[in-house]
Amino acid sequence: MKPDFRKTMIWLHTYSGLLLGWLLFAIFVTGTLSYFNPEISQWMKPELGSQRADSNNINQSLARLNNDAQGATYWRINLATARNNHLRLSWGMPENGKSSRHSVTLNSKTLQPLEIRDSQGGNFFRSFHYTLQLRNYGGRYLAGIAAMMMLVAIFSGIFTHRRFFRDFFTVRLNNVFKTLTDLHAVIGIITIPFCFVLSLSALFIYISMYMPWSMDHHYEKGSRELNALVSTSLPKLVPAGIAAKPLTDFDIVLSKVKQQWPEPNAIKRISYQQPFDINGRIVVSRHKQLSLSNKSEVLAFSSVDGRPLAGVEPERNARMLRRIFYGLHEALFASIGLRYLLFFMGTASCLLIASGLIMWLNKRLPKVKQRHLGHFLVERLNIAGIVGLMLAIVSYFYANRLLDLQLAQRAEMEVSVFLLTWGAVLVYAFVRPARRAWLELLLLTAIAYLALPLVDVVINAQWLLDALQYNNWIYLGFDLALLITGGLALLFYFWLVRRTQ
Amino acid sequence: MILSYLLQLFALWLLSMAMNKHFRHSFKRTLSIRHAQMLSKFGWLLLAASFACLVNNELAPLMSVYWLSFLALNILLVALFNSWQSRHKIKRLAANSQGAVV
């Protein structure tokens, strides 16, 4: 019974990994990039500048809102952070019984309005990794199936690579294929907690989409009604209809906030709800640095005199559990060190998937006399799925720099360039001999990554000079990451060339 | 945090040394059962200590994420170190035996 069970597990591990391997690879690569979503967005919107925010720009922002948005239904200030120099003011003006939204991005140092290029920035990778650009066409269901398959591959992998548990800490370095197999096993082991939490939390996040039947059975409005029952929020604000002047000296509120949230730069967002009503409210949201939950902590104050108002009731444990899984998935709590560790595990997971896909083929090809369609497909999809994705990502960055700034629907065009490049690589992989396609595409990818910082300097050298002058490590770090990725691709290319010779 | 990281790295190295194969490659002698048990027990104890010293504050949930992330990195480091050491030894042995033949 035992050997049969292990054989079944090996089969399950092999084919659960193979069937959705390329999809999982794309999800993990874009998901891993999402750990640096604000930093990528900062690089992709160089107009935000390198000069850091002044600590006192809240009062100046409020003065500006008071001047430009008299009679607004709400004011909102999204403060610049250490990760993204994006100071945005938004407000709603009453129009035909509704509220029309207005917003302006300011230079966080000078508070002058900025014209920011139309780009999704790092948010594209974030939304792609769970919608696959198919939000209304079942993309989230596909991502859910992939997460389920990942869980199956993790558990069946434990039985498949049990030798590694017995012979722990061993990577055979004397043979490339054995090294790859052992690295696949060791990375598989070290990323078990990471992949398990990520896959399970992915299912938890969209549990109401994947398993709606129980909620639909018990509640008339399904998950929406259940959410309203178990979630807690601030008491509903009812305008009194009596006009009042909003508080524009935030220092009164700030001293009270600092008593409760003593850490530096604790405030993420400030919202004024009904600022010109006597019942108006200021809601201050905290950065998610100290809690695993994805729910922002908030404090409420009167928008007239800054006295504290009723806060949010604690949530039920079941709801908290889901929020913690959500928070673990997004990792917004992670400080820079932990973010790099999570990035390392994300990259390791990508290597795990890619090595599994390559191993499947390399294990079989030497043993078969004649290749069948499956071998051909896997060989070509490996090229398009692995190196093609890397090329598509860098093409997205090139599109960000090279597309005309006045182009209509520019942000969508950037995404189209990403998808078209990936599609072109897929075609290329199918028409070229496999080995040549690997080498040519790897070389092209390496050159593309290495040349991008140079192209950036040619377009506008001032961005780099400013980054150097003001120690903008986000900008410089991104350029460095491009050079490292390009360098690694080039090393891999030369290694492959040596092997093929 | 640094102390916890280093304790964990040392604990994992001890656990790997509790395996005869890795011990032999590192110290050029066979591992007795008693020593293997001692290394293993000490390794687990240090691993628990590294966890305890990291989560012993109000940010325990956050710190447990750190500990697990460190664990992933350290297992990989110990595995690569042991493998590099074993390969290095094999190469040295091969060179020595060639020298003896000459």
Number of domains of chain B: 1
Largest sheet of chain B: none
**How does the overall form of chain B come out from the CA principal axes?**
elongated
Largest sheet of chain A: 6 strands, antiparallel
- Span between termini of chain A: 46 Å
> Would you tell me the structural class of the helices and strands of chain B?
mainly alpha
Rg over CA atoms of chain B: 17 Å
Average predicted confidence as pLDDT of chain A? 89
What does this structure look like?
The complex is a heterodimer of chains A (501) and B (102). Chain A is of the alpha+beta class and 501 residues long. Chain A is built from 20 helices and 6 strands. Chain A has helices at residues 2-19, 21-33, 37-44, 57-68, 123-131, 139-160, 162-166, 176-190, 192-205, 207-210, 213-218, 222-230, 251-260, 317-330, 336-364, 373-402, 410-431, 434-459, 461-469, 473-500; strands at residues 74-78, 87-95, 98-106, 267-273, 281-286, 298-302. In chain A, strands 3-2-1-4-5-6 form a 6-stranded antiparallel sheet, with helices on one face. In chain A, strand 4 and strand 5 (281-286) form a beta hairpin. Chain A is globular and about 85 Å long. Chain A starts with a helix and ends with a helix. The model of chain A has no long low-confidence stretch (mean pLDDT 89). With 102 residues, chain B is mainly alpha-helical. Chain B has one domain (2-101). In chain B, helix 1 crosses helix 4 and helix 3 packs antiparallel against helix 4. Chain B is elongated, with a radius of gyration of 17 Å. Chain B is built from 4 helices and no strands. The model of chain B has no long low-confidence stretch (mean pLDDT 84). Helices cover 87% and strands 0% of the residues of chain B. Classes of the chains: A alpha+beta (501), B mainly alpha (102). Chain A binds chain B through residues 167-174, 182, 186-187, 189-191, 193-194, 290-292, 324, 328, 333-334, 338, 341-342, 344-345, 348, and chain B through 12, 15-16, 19, 21-22, 59, 61-62, 65-66, 68-73, 75-76, 78-80, 82-84, 86-87, 90.
